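Example record

Each entry pairs one chain with its bound ligand, S-adenosylmethionine.
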Amino acid sequence: MTVPTLRLPAQLAEPLAAGHPWVYRDHVPGHPNLPDGAWVRVEAGRAAAIGLWAAEGAIAVRAFRRAATGGPLAAPDRAWAEAMVARAVDQRARLGLGAGSPIATDAYRLLFGEGDGLPGLTIDRYGRFAVVKTYADAYRRPGSDAHALLVAIVRALAAALRLKGVLAAPRAGEPLTALHGEPPPPEVTVREHGLAFLANLHEGQKTGLFLDHRENRATVRGLARGRRVANLFAYAGAFSLHALAGGALRAIDVDVADAALADAVRNVAANAAVIEAAAPAAGPAASRHATLTLDLLADPAAALRHPQLAGSDLIVLDPPSLARHKGQRHAALRAYRRLNAAAMAALPDGGLLATASCTAQVSPEAFRGVLAEAAAAAGVDARVLHDAGHAGDHPVPLAFPEGRYLKFVVLRVDRPT
Ligand SMILES: C[S@@+](CC[C@H](N)C(=O)[O-])C[C@H]1O[C@@H](n2cnc3c(N)ncnc32)[C@H](O)[C@@H]1O
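Structure tokens for the complex follow.
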């Protein structure tokens, strides 16, 4: 197969050679008239790569194979896709995830796009099902090279893991479609570190659950004994469930989405035995869990003063992404400052704040900076106990810092003496 070649400015040679997987449209000279989702070769200095062309959007080319010093490069084919899938599956198994998982987890990210050398798509596993999310339209357009690649990947995954169904994540207002096999039942039960979670693959947020926080939830479990937890932006209560399983005395899930909170109640019921065994003197699981429907972004300080949250000494703060593009970055930083200052002000001396940001436009350094400003505004001393991102099933190439979207920091909040 011959593919067209695009010559890029020399300044892109270094990132291309280092493995940065994106070429932004404003770096592509002229306006090449190429079919959406077709293979294209890009060259800058001596570096070259083969990638998929996107006719629209800020990212013009997603690079799959590269050669730091040029030379021929074949367009990825079915055999190549199968090898990439086999490698990703093997890497997850080596992390202890997957069949017979020693950490009792069968919900995790099978493919993390750029991090697994397959840019523009993610695939999450939920037991015997997998959910594909695409970030370039051509993946879903039959006839394109991108679609042919996706078909090969899906087949290889389904065969390697004997999946019952591989699904395209539903877009707003669209029904879920099966790319392979059968659609899932309305609800799938999966396990995360031994706890049972209900996942609605038809209508859930993200691809069903927020898998990127798996190890962060385990961290909270290890810190929760004897604590009273306020889980803000709770979704289906996954952080609370881990905290209760770690011996928390009580947990309150707060979110604006009623349906998610209803799932949180069912998740606690499904894990009642584990929760009660973790703190036998604390009473039945259901009596130690509550939900609260509240808009937390409108006025965080007022929300944190809600009487049901009084006495919380472990606050989890996991808002949704607060900036979709660079232009919203400053507003996002302001919102993080307000939220975190309100949470710190509400904590007693020695309280813990487990705070997250999934906004890609906010770097780990910027997030730390905002936390320091929030501590100053709240008049507290805050110390970092733990600083993390996503788990090993979300690998990030060193040359692609944009890939590290998740920040997770645990702070101890001390009142100045
Ligand atoms: C990143 S998710 C939380 C994931 C969760 N911590 C977990 O581990 O599964 C963000 C949550 O914020 C909720 N949310 C969005 N806007 C909100 C608002 N203004 N007030 C309260 N919750 C909101 C969404 O419904 C969603 O459940």
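The pocket of S-adenosylmethionine is lined by residues 205, 210, 213, 233-235, 238-239, 255-257, 260, 295-297, 318-320, 358 (CB under 6 Å).
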